[in-house]
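Recap quiz, item 2
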Amino acid sequence: MTNPFNIHMTGVGGQGIGLLSQTLLRAVDCAGIRAIAVDTHGLAQRGGMVVSRIRMGENVFSPLIMAHGADLVLGMEIHEALRGAHTALKKNGILCYLNVAWQPLAVRLGQADSVAETQIKTVCEEMDARAFCVDAETIDDPRMQNMALIGTIAANKLIPGVDMNHYRQALKDLLAGPVLDKNLALLESYGKGAAPGPG
Amino acid sequence: MEKIGDMLIRKKPFQEMVMGNTAVVRAMVEAGTRVVTSYPGSPTPEIATAINSISKEKRPFYFEFSVNEKVATEVAFGAALNGNLSTVFFKSVGLNVALDSFVQLGLMNIPGGLVIIVGDDPGANSSQNEQDNRNIFRMSRIAVLEPASPREVYQYYLKAAKLAKQESIAVVLRLTTHVCHARETVSFGSFSGLISPHRVDFSTENGPYIPIAALALEMKRKSLAKMSRIMAFAGEQGLNTVIPGHKTRNLGVITQGLTCRSLQDVLQGGDAGPDILKLGMIYPMDTNDVVEFLKAHNQVLILEELDDIHEKEIKALAFDHGISVKLLGKNNDENFIGEYTPDKVLKVLKDVWPDFVKHHESSEQDLYSDSPVPVPPRPAQMCPGCGHRSAFHAVKKAVGDNDITVADIGCHTLGFLPPYEMGQVLLCMGASPGIASGLSLFNIQRKVVAFIGDSTFFHAGLPGIMNTLLNHHNITLIVMENGTTAMTGHQDHAGREISIESLLQGLGIKHIFSCDTYQQSTLIGHVKAAMAIEGLSVVIAKHPCMLKLTRAQRKKSGFVPRHVKIDDAMCSRSHDCVELFGCPSFVRHPDGSVGVNHDLCIGDGSCRQVCPEKAISIDS
């Protein structure tokens, strides 16, 4: 693991980035790794851009990540994934994103083009970054799409030192009842292939 | 899963991963705070969320949302005069609203102690400016502690409460946006479980409390006399800390809060670095600590975001003490603008001491930093189903191209964006009736329409409305009533107890129109009729906040999601739905057809009436 290890999460207000960030942060904590985090939501509740960050390691001070300082960029939406790749991703980093599109205002007004997945591919190639595209189209409730991301992260061990058990434990700390069951089920289905942790 | 509210009143010490806004509530519990008040505003509303997570019966203090920040400050002050440790919290520009009362607090002997939590917003993430409230704290002579992280938020509240009680004063805990919202593991202390008795100890013997003429000066004298003891508190409590550099080159930095963390990040990985003096109490500044630090260094950089307050004070201090140290500070306008993120601090250091940041010169990281990002910006939007969208869509049809529309603060401020472009000028909470009145003077050519939200109506809107009556101004006021303080997360407001329409009637306003905003043609008619009237006319454009309503519905069992659908055969590609009505649920396909994003659409159907072909229907 590079020390520190920086995770930049990006999406649109209403997509559940808060739960995504909190779950990952708790999972990192469960794994015994020091971490700090911060959300920038501004007016995100109204469909604006929302960014959250987690910084892992002993020698991290500010929860903010410097430009192009993210080892892992998580995009909950393709426009924001491309923006994240251009502003936050490190050379040789990892981009993991949902194939979900929530068109920004200018696209809906016919003043700009929608982002195409090939653009994401191109930027990742130029930056020697690994890209993971997660299919979330089968998930009916958009507020649970974040579980597809976490499952993919677990299956591919994208966050060093954190395994499936830690993600499970984090979810159990944060949710309860039927909501927990539904989210856990999704996490498990996307996390298939993840090596079972000890115990 | 343990509920956060239960955790916050746990008796035994514990560790938990929390944000700054949550950590401060545990500190309130441990400190024995009895009364807490607020008006909601970012970056502080999650403090209220944490408070409300403790059930009312178990909560060891009284909490209220007051009508505005000024009233909230007054309620907390009054409670503290009775001997109860009290706290008020609000956002940066909330201090402007509270100011008339706030400036007096420095003169007052406050037996219970009062902690004022102000959430400043460097970078203007969710405020109409990035004002540096350190200027105001200084004017009011109120001591200020500034934490850098959730852990320090918890610790510094406890210290602020201790100082406030010890000296019977008001103390500010200055938070900034990314301190409020940062998360880390915090080790909390114990809570006795005992609720301190409610005191009713007010006595004029603790005063004077009437700052009139000579008494005001006497009160000022008394408060100045406390300053040296307050300053000494920083030393006693170890609030200012020196972080030694890697190598002595007699260079130092004086800084504070999250800016210090940015600096530490930027220096990390380098083989040298300056000594750092981090100020925890930023006003009054402990001159002993600073003088000692200045004497020990040849060059000192004062690194502070926003204004150059410490810089000026430290330069004066060095002059007074005859210290021959080179002092470096802000050297261009950009250094006064924006948050001091690690990226910003790197820029500052590159200018001043490039040697310390050589390790950042790996050029591949700058690969894309100067090229434009090929993604359109994503401004905040009104939510799917939002009643304000329906209101703006209708009002736009009633207002002439040359007429003037005045915005106010709230979700409806977003009406200024395309495609509505309703609301062309904005100052602050409750300013729209007054601005509109001024715009209406000497003006018979252009109608003036002002918007105001319901929470803002009560907060600061009423004086402006009464002024239009008193002085017979000719404006149309549109009250955007959604039943909640929506922008900051659906807090209650006075509308729970007071009907806006009855209140307006009680003021003697004769021309009041009212309808649900989904009734587009009625609303257009109302606005046209109102604008034709001489004097003040009011249109109450009502619709409940659909984000709040939908969230509540989703929690009920048997909830079935609803969506609209577009009959593509009927669609004439007029794009009224996606371009004029502008609901974010619509998807514009490259071939010109329009779809519906089921992740976003809530099936409210408010869009159906905007389609000239009636191609939109509820998908059942």
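Chain B has a mean pLDDT of 95.
DSSP finds 20 helices and 23 strands in chain B.
End of item.
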